[in-house]
TrEMBL record:
Signal peptide: none annotated. Residues 1-81 form the Cytochrome oxidase subunit I profile domain. It comes from the Bacteria. The chain crosses the membrane at residues 20-40. It comes from Georgenia muralis. Residues 90-107, 116-134 have a biased composition (Basic and acidic residues). One of its GO terms (molecular function) is cytochrome-c oxidase activity. This is Cytochrome oxidase subunit I profile domain-containing protein. Residues 90-134 are annotated as: Disordered.
Length: 134
């Protein structure tokens, strides 16, 4: 049997599989075109980025250092006052806003433990009192 067939005999039952694999190979070949275009555009000339965070919405400290980064990213340890230090650095008006009032009852019920939810209480067999009643 030869290694490659351009066409299979209909009685072999491979015609559909051959057509599916041909369409798949064409799809793979076409999908490499955007990749090659991206390589060409990138290699044509480097675009220099002169700002720390070109989009302005980076949250972590990696967006707060210079690009390209120096040998030691920071000369001193930065002060972190929120979960989004770089975003707060680029948008001080948002960082200065007061946080919304939190529902203390909800937080207390979530973080207080399972006994405040009315389940998993230990009941003393002799007295009938729960551990929450003590």
């Amino acid at each position: 049997m030869p290694r490659r067939y351009p066409n299979y005999m209909p009685e072999d039952g491979f015609t559909l599989y051959n057509q599916i694999s041909t369409v798949g190979s064409v799809l793979v070949a076409v999908s490499t075109l955007p990749f090659l275009w991206n390589v060409y555009v990138t290699m044509r000339g480097p675009r220099t980025v002169f700002v720390d965070d070109p989009w302005g919405f980076g949250n972590s400290l990696e967006w707060a250092t210079a690009s390209p980064f120096p040998r030691h990213n920071f000369t001193s340890l930065p002060r972190i006052r929120s979960e989004r230090p770089a975003f707060d650095l680029h948008h001080p008006e948002v960082a200065a806003m007061d946080p919304p009032e939190r529902n203390r009852d909800l937080l207390d019920s979530l973080y207080a433990g399972p006994e405040t939810h009315g389940r998993d209480r230990l009941i003393d067999q002799r007295t009938g009192r729960t551990d929450h009643d003590r």
